[in-house]
Amino acid sequence: MGDRSTRRGAVGTDPRRDSRAARTAAAGLLTALWLVAFLRALNRVFVLNFSTAGPNVTGLLALALVTGWTVPVVARVADRPVAWHATVAVALGGLGLSLVGGTLVSLAGAVVFLSATTPPLVALAGDLRERFAVAAALGVLTHGALRAVLDTAPPYATPLGRGLLVALALVTLAAWWLVTRESPPDATALAAPGGATATAFLFVQATFLGLAPRVSLWTGRSLLVVLAATTLGLVAGAAWVARRGAPGRRATVAWSVALLLGLAALLFGPGPGVAALPAAAATVLLCARGCRAGTTTARRTGLGVAGVQAVGLVLTVTVVLAMNWAFVPGVGPLVRGWQAQLLLTLGAMLPGAVLLRERTAAADRVDPAPATEPSREPVAGGRRALLTAAGLGLLGLGGAAARRVTPSDEVPAADSVTALSFNIHQYIDARGRHNLESVRDLLAEADAGIVGLQETAGGRLTAGGLDGVRWLARELDLHAAAGPPTRIASYGVALLSRWPIREERWVVLPSTDTATRVALAAVVESPLGDLPVVVAHLETEGAVRVEQAERVVELARETGDPARALVLGDFNATPDERPYAVLTDAFADPWAGVGSEGDTYSASDPRKRIDYALVGRDWAHERGTVVGSPSVSDHLGVSVRLTRPPE
Questions:
Q1: pLDDT tens digits, 239-271
Q2: CB < 8 Å & 24+ apart, contacts of 365-371
Q3: What is the DSSP string of 295-308?
Q4: Please, what is the end-to-end C-alpha distance for the chain in angstroms?
Q5: What percent of the chain has pLDDT above 70?
Q6: How confident is the model at residue 6 (pLDDT cuts 50, 70, 90)?
Q7: Which of helix, strand or coil describes residue 1?
Q8: Of 30, 36, 34, 32, which Cα lies nearest the Cα of 180?
C-alpha cells in the first residue's frame, strides 16, 4: 500500500487532488463569467439592431461570437506559460471594457472576453475530462446565485451587479493563478475532443435552461419552484458524475430523452416548473459523457467548437427573429411562432454533440466507455465539489426567497389615487443602456399608487432573463401583475399597485400581420374602493388599432363598472385618430385639449401624444404630470389624479 505520508505529502494532502480542485474551481468561475458575457453580447447586438437603429445588418456582429478559431491559434504557443497568463489578462480586460463602454464598445469587450476564454475553457475540459461537467454545473449555479442575489437583474444593469462581477473576476483570476502556478495547460489539453460538448452545454444553459427567471417568465410558473428544480437537477447531475463518472451508452440515450422531454414540457405551454429538474441533471451527465478522455488535434477541436457555436448562433438569432418577426420583413414571417421549436433544437445541440463524439471516437482514437455500463470510477475530490454546488444552490434559493415581493395588504384611507402610464422600452433607455434604476427612481419620485407599464417582457432571450416587473415591485414595495408569458412573444404589459391586486388576467388583442399586442386587466383594492384597471399596448399603425381599442373598452366592462375604471396605455394613436375616439367615447381624458403640453413621444423630442391615462365617467379627476427623459426611456410617462366624486 505504501507509506501514507509518502502518498499524501508531509502535511497529509494530495497535491494532485488539490490541483484538480483548483482547476475545477477555475473552470466553474470561467463558466459563470462566460454566461454573463454571452448574455451581454446578445443584448448589445439586439440593441444595435432593434432598439436604437431598427433592424439592420449589424446582426452580422453576432458572427464575432464564433470564437473556436482561437483554439488552434493559442495551441501554437501553449507550451509557454506567459501565453496563458496573457490570454486570461486579455479576457478580463475585455470584461472590464464591456462594463464601462457604450453599446459598440461594450459588445466589443464581451466578444474579446469570449474569444480569450475559449482556449482556457477547452483546455480545462480536456484536462478535467468527466469532471468538467461538475465544474460546468458549479459555474451555472454560481451564475444562478449571482442573479438571485441581484433579484434577476443582469450584473451589468446595476452598480451592485457590476461590483459583484468585478469581485467574481478577481476570484477567477486568483483561481487561474493557482492552476497555472505549477502546471499550466499545454497543447495536449487543447487537442482533447470534449470542447464541442462543453460549448454545446454552455449554449443550452445560456439560451434557456440556465436562467431560472427566463424559464419562470416563459412558463408563468413560480421563480422559486423553477430555481429549486434547476438547482436540484444540477446538483444531482454533478453528484452522479462525482460518484460514478460519465454515464454509459444506454444511460446516455435515456438522459438525452429526459433532456428533450423536460425542455418540451417547459417550452410548449405552461408546463410544470419541476420539469427543469430532469432537464438540468441531463445536461450535466451528457456533458460528462462528451468530455471523456480522447485525443485529436487542436485544429479539429477548434473546428468542432466553431461548428457548435455557428449552429448555436444561427438558432439563437432565429429565435430572436421569431420573437420580433414583425420587424424583419421577408425572414420574420417565415419563423413566426417557431420560438419554442427553435429553443428545443438549441437544447438538442448537447445530445447531438455527444452523439457526434461517439461516431467520431474511432477516428479520434478515443477509448470509449463500455457500451452498456457506466464508468464506476469516482471523480477525485468530488465531495468537495458537491458541497460547493449545494452551497451555491442554497445561496441562490436563499437570495431569491429573501427578495420575494411582499408588500403590505393594508388599504389606508385616502381621498385620492394617482395613476401613471409609462412605456419603459424593454428596460433599455434611448441610448441603449439598462434603465432599471432610472425607472425605479422615476416611479419613486412620481409617487403614483397605480402604475401601468408597457414593454415589460424582460424575459426575452436578448434581455438577459430579467424579471423587471418583479425587480421594480420589490424595490418599490408594490404589488405586481404581469402578462403574458414570454412564450407569447409580445412586448408585455404590467400593473404595479400600492394596494392589493386581484382577478388579474391578460388577453391577446386583435391583430393583422403585426407583432402580438396584449392587454392586462385586474381589480385594485384602492382607498377609493375596487378599481377596475386595464393596461394596454396597441399597434403602431393601421386600422387594427380601432379593433384593439374596442377590445380594451370591452375588457374594462368585463372587469367591473366601466364608469369607475382606469385605462392606462401606449395606444400609438394621437387625439385626432379613430382609436382615440373609440376610447374617449367610453372614458374621460383628463389631458384633452392641452396641446403639446401632453406630448409623450419621443422622449428626446416630444411631438406626439400617444400615451394616455383615461378614467371612468364617475370619477372626479385632474391632470397630473408628464415625467421622464431619454435617460429613462424613449417615451415619457403621463399621470392623472382620481378623487372621490361629489356626493
A1: 999 888 899 989 999 999 999 999 999 999 777
A2: 365/294, 365/295, 365/296, 366/193, 366/292, 366/293, 366/294, 366/295, 367/293, 367/294, 368/292, 369/245, 369/246, 369/248, 369/249, 369/289, 369/292, 370/248, 370/249, 371/248, 371/249, 371/250
A3: ---HHHHHHHHHHH
A4: 96
A5: 91
A6: very low
A7: coil
A8: 30
CA distance 184 to 177: 9
Q: What is the pLDDT of residues 14-69, one digit of tens each?
A: 445 557 788 888 999 999 999 999 999 999 988 888 766 666 777 778 888 999 99
Backbone angles phi, psi at 177, to 5 degrees: -65, -40
Cα distances (Å, whole numbers) of residue 383 to 137, 179, 394, 626: 14, 20, 16, 59
What is the distance between the alpha carbons of residues 122 and 491, in angstroms, rounded to a whole number? 38
**Pairwise pLDDT comparison (308 vs 183), residue with the higher score:** 308
Q: Indicate the range of 167-176, 201-210, 381-390, 394-403 predicted with least confidence.
A: 381-390
* Helices (H), ranges, 268-364: 276-290, 298-323, 339-359
Bond into 484 cis (ω within 30): yes
CB 67 within 8 A of CB 309: yes
Closest CA to 422 of 456, 373, 399, 388: 456
Grid coordinates representing 7 are 502518498
Backbone phi and psi for residue 305, each to the nearest 5 degrees, phi listed first: -60, -45
Residue whose cell numbers read 505520508? 5
Q: Residue 191 corresponds to which cell in the numbers above? A: 487537442
334-359 pLDDT per residue, tens: 888 899 999 999 999 999 999 988 88
Name the grid cell of 269.
405551454
Res 177 pLDDT > 60: yes
- Checking if the pLDDT of 564 tops 90, the result is yes
CA distance 83 to 94: 16
Residue 496 pLDDT: 97
Nearest alpha carbon to residue 211 among 126, 146, 300:
146
Residue 326 CB coordination number (10 Å) = 18
pLDDT tens for 464-473 read: 889 999 999 9
Question: What Å distances lie between residue 264 and 189, 319, 373, 492, CA to CA?
Answer: 35, 16, 28, 23
For residues 612, 618, 620, 626, the Cα torsion angle rounded to the nearest 10 degrees is -10
pLDDT at 376: 47
Q: pLDDT at residue 368 above 50?
A: no
State how far the Cα of 587 lies from the Cα of 565, in Å rounded to an integer. Answer: 8
**What is the residue type of 483?**
G
Chain position carrying cell 497529509:
12
CA separation for the pair 404, 151 (Å, rounded): 9
Q: Is the four-CA dihedral 84, 87, 91, 97 of positive or negative sign?
A: positive
pLDDT in tens, 152-175: 999 999 999 999 999 999 999 888
Angle between helices 15-46 and 103-128 (to 10 degrees): 150
For 635, which DSSP code? B
> What amino acid is encoded at 372 in this protein?
T
Grid cell at residue 16 = 494532485
| Average of per-residue pLDDT values in the chain | 87
- Lowest-confidence segment of 25-29, 276-280, 553-557 by average pLDDT: 25-29
* Alpha-carbon 342 to chain mean position: 16
Report residue 451 as a C-alpha cell: 402604475
